[in-house]
Amino acid sequence: MNENAKARLAGNLLSLAHKLGLFIAMAIICLPGLWIVLASFRPTVEIMAKPPVWIPQDLSLDAYVAMFSGVGQGGIPVIDYFSNSLIVSITSTVISLAIGMAGGYAFARFRFRAKSSIFLGLMLTRTVPGIALSLPLFFVYSKLGIIDTHFGLILAYVALNVPFTIWLIDGFFRQVPKDLAEAAQIDGCTRWQAFWQVEFPLAGPGIASAGIFAFLTSWNEFALASQLTRSINSKTLPVGLLDYTAEFTIDWRGMCALAVVMIIPALVLTFIVQKHLVSGLTSGAVKG
Amino acid sequence: MATVSLQKLVKRYGALEIVHGIDLEVADREFIALVGPSGCGKSTTLRMIAGLEPISGGNLKIGGRIVNDLPPRARNISMVFQSYALYPHMTVRENMGFSLKIAGMKSEEIAPRVEEAARTLDLTHLLDRRPSQLSGGQRQRVAMGRAIVRNPDVFLFDEPLSNLDAKLRTQLRTEIKKLHAKVQSTVIYVTHDQVEAMTLADRIVIMRDGHIEQVGTPEEVFQRPASKFVAGFIGSPPMNLKDAEIADGRVVFVNGDSLPLPRRFADRVTAGRKVTFGLRPDDLYPAGHGIHSGQEADVHKADLRVSITEPLGNETLVFSEHGGAEWVGRMLNPRRLRAGETLPFCFDLSQAHLFDRETGRTLRG
Questions:
Q1: Which of B102, B139, B155, B159 to mutate to test the interface with A (most CBs of A within 10 A)?
Q2: What's the CATH fold of domain A76-283?
Q3: What's the DSSP call for residue A197?
Q4: Are A179 and B83 within 8 A, CB to CB?
Q5: Is B252 helix (H, G, I), strand (E, B) or coil?
Q6: A46 vs B186, more confident
Q7: Per-residue pLDDT, A287
Q8: What is the distance between the alpha carbons of residues B316 and B310, in angstroms, rounded to a whole number?
Q9: In chain B, what are the domain boundaries?
């Protein structure tokens, strides 16, 4: 065997090893998700069996039927929870993005006093764990009377998301060359038009990722929501999961079914936005 | 079409003054090049004319109208950036038509103008591509197309060719010259490349540290540089500039070697004056191999030892030692030289320059 053949073989083996490694990593990441979907279709006995039953014996849609069959018949007000989640997540995402775009643009483009301190301060807010805020927030909210309202939850999530959206969008605006906005102004745009016609489309992928992130944070958030919501007025899906726990029992199958209902919109959104996440859109703007 | 007039134009960033009150009159349809080393304020000046930098003092007039505080869109100018600054999310067609679209023109009015500009710049086959699919030269042509489509009063170029390789640069330089002949607009062209400035411009403005050193035609700045700085900046290879002192009708260099005082300076300088002596490589040549071939009256001959040669085909640059410093000369119709060879050289003193060593200004008067 000559040197070239050896090198080729080594290359092939290495690539095979990479693929195998990736497969194992992906399996570890994906297995819990798969397990939840499977568990939502099978009876508790099978879910709790030891050793685990890998191949499902007895699949049914009972959990889903029960979930939607209304309160008192083993169901939970899933439609209300769902719409609460949707209203809270979408509104807080839109507001976080609006503030994030304005803030990110300002940090990327303008010079002002104490800029880096303000930026650092924003980042520091991210170091406080959400759960640590739940008690103070609860007191403040109860004084203000905004416990168990959409408004209260939206406010909390906007505050949670804004530092992140600003940070992420700032990075993307930095990548859009300043020359482009200047060229647009020379071409007759106002500053405002230059932003919407040139800089916004180019920072689009970043804004989309910030949007996904903000949406998922709000959609999945449990710790704060469990304190700040009380009833079907504002309870979101993650809090709704608790409805499946009773004093002595936990309906694992029902919980998994609700989890699947929660995952679907997040997946759909990610797929929709995915095509906007194509980065490298700015290549070719400047130089060669 | 318009004149551009800079009156005591100042740019300050906080306490730091970058451009110190410069005056410049650009005639209608004139091609003006601003040259100077980096940091001399030429780009800042251009950006003030464009409206991209606020003006800290003085007046800027375009077409006789003061435009100091007008935004770029109200100045009817267009600009070609060094980085091209093409919109990556638009096709070439959309890039070129963007300004017209913003101006509210209908697409059936835009299309013929874009196509006309594309024909001028030979871009027709590229109209539906995106900037990322173009080469550097093509991108720069699109940037120029975007500028000419709107028939601006003034074209501004900010080092448009400095990202291109040497060959493409020469080619596009010619295109810019043709373009100017065709569209007949006023052009202000910033470059650090003196060859570009010399070949393109009607007049050259040489800037240094936020001041204008000299304004003149390419011939003027080459043949009659107002200062040592201009003399060293314009011309390639640069002028030989050597510190010396005047004594007994001679120019005496630091190590004691000397040359006769050029005749036209005879009654301009007195003994003991500290000067910088300047001689272009074209005016220092091995006997029989010069432009002036030794016919002029004021030629000094001396034997010099060749240290290095740089053959360029039609000519050879010859480095040799005199007065304790290295001089570069230009040998036309060259023959092969050996390093270490000693040759009779002609110093054409009728072409020599003297500058005041303190102020750097020319002593020609």
A1: B102
A2: MetI-like fold (1.10.3720)
A3: I
A4: yes
A5: strand
A6: B186
A7: 43
A8: 6
A9: 4-230, 240-363
Determine the Cα–Cα distance for residues B219 and A278; give it in Å rounded to an integer: 53
Binned at pLDDT 50, 70 and 90, residue A274 comes out as confident
Cβ proximity of B42 and B102 under 8 Å: no
Q: If you ran DSSP here, which 8-state letter would residue B283 be given?
A: G
For the record, the structure tokens of A9 come out as: 């073989």
Task: For chain A, give every domain's residue range.
Answer: 3-65, 76-283
Give chain A positions within 8 Å (CB) of B135: 288
**Exposed, middle or buried: residue A219 (CB in 10 Å: 0-12, 13-18, 19+)?**
buried
What does the DSSP assignment read for B139-167? Answer: HHHHHHHHHHTT--SEEEEESTTTTS-HH
Which of B195, B208, B280 lies closest to B241 in space, CA to CA? Answer: B280
Q: What is the pLDDT of residue B280?
A: 93
Token pair of A39 as six digits: 């568990």
Task: Report the distance separating Cα A150 and Cα A141, nearest Å.
Answer: 12
ipTM: 0.84
Looking at domain B240-363, its CATH architecture is Beta Barrel (2.40)
CA A42 to CA A62: how far, in whole Å? 9
Strand order in the sheet with B342-348: B284-286, B342-348, B299-311, B315-322, B325-332
3-state secondary structure of A258: helix
What are the tens digits of pLDDT across the range B276-330? 999 999 999 998 888 764 455 788 889 999 999 999 999 999 999 887 889 999 9
Cross-chain residue pair B88–A179, CB shorter than 8 Å: no
* Bridge partners (DSSP) listed for residue A183: none
Class of domain B4-230: alpha beta
Residues of chain B with pLDDT under 50: 293-294
Contact B156, B79 (CB under 8 A): yes
Tokens linked to B170: 């020469």
Distances (CA, A) of B24 to A284, B157, B179: 36, 17, 24
Q: Which chain A residues in 201-240 lie under 8 Å from chain B, judged by CB atoms?
A: 201-202
Contact of A287 with chain B, judged by CB distance below 8 Å, is answered with yes
Structure tokens belonging to residue B312: 């360029």
A125 has pLDDT over 60: yes
DSSP alpha helix (H) spans, B187-324: 194-200, 218-223, 228-233
Instruction: Identify the pLDDT of residue A284.
Output: 43
